[in-house]
Predict the structure.
Amino acid sequence: MRQRFVGCVIGVAVLCAVVRSNAQQTTRFEVATVTRNVSGSAAAGLDMSGGQVRATNLALRVLIRQAFDVIDSQIVNAPTWAADERYDVIAKAPEGITGAAMRPLLRMLLAERFKLATHTEMRDMPVYGLTKTASSTTPGLRETTRDCAANPGGGAAIDTTDQWPMCSVSLKPGLLYIGGFRMSVVTRQLAGLVGMPVLDETSITTPVQFRLEYQPADLFTALEQQTGFKLVSKSAPVEVVVVDSAERPTAN
């Protein structure tokens, strides 16, 4: 340790000081409560907008999905109670932390309250490859220059109509809409619908506006007809979250 530290000081002292400072500061939610929900209700919800997490009647597996940005099939070795028992979570992030930047805070919360310990590894598993067809008619797909992930508050009116809102992701029964985000967001939402990881093989590099109206029984057909995309079944290495240990949450 001494040799590494001395080299650091001699080389780039200021940079090393910043690295050490960042390593010592782990961002947490400013306020967080976790309580068991024993209502027996089937209603559940999750809202991670406005720098807050408001989870109602959710299982630990669902919280893990959100924290690690995976689907259920990518969670391995979780205890049975992690799918059966439900919890309410209310947490407030420090000012300026919103959206995907809250995932590390949620992972920290799960580690502290549920004693969740995990590691990731690659495993071969069934997936879908999302490919482009030869169709020239794609009423449900538009490419755009507006990158809402890079600039979420800017130019929200550009390319926006009631049916094609910009900087919006909406998943409702029979409708998936994504406005102004890259294909990684499209594949992530489709993965949730089909229950398997979806790999982007479209070669589209720009943000898109994506609108899919479907019935569960004809999702694949609707996807191809409306967007010119096709889901192809295959096997591929996928990163999974392996649960090493978890405990029922501690008191607030």
